[in-house]
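It would be a great kindness if you could assist me with a short task in structural biology. The matter concerns a single protein, recorded as an amino acid sequence and a row of backbone structure tokens. Could you please explain, in whatever detail you think fit, how the structure tokens follow from the sequence? Thank you for your consideration; the sequence and its tokens are set out here:
___
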Amino acid sequence: MSEKASRPQHLRSVRAWLLRQLRRTDDTIAEVERQEVAATRAARTSPPPPRGWKLAMRRAGGGGTGATPGAVHTGACGMAGKNTRPLAREQALRAITEDGVTACPYCRPDTDPGVL
């Protein structure tokens, strides 16, 4: 016949199980803290995405071929439409200041430092 475990043996078994659970919990806490530190470090060190510009093209009317520049927009402007071309900062500045292309009145790319 199997003998019942004594009360001290039973309590030692419970204590051993609790210690294993505590070690697992400590390991999980340490891993979560490492992930949070890594995420904070990555967010702090990654530069913001470069701000882009785009040129909305307008279809030429009449019997003309091709498209003409419509307006300069910031990269995130939703008013540009589908027919756009990406522009570098220098190209956007030149289009607004020298080529006479209008700036979008909604996203106002002409308010970028160095334009006005």
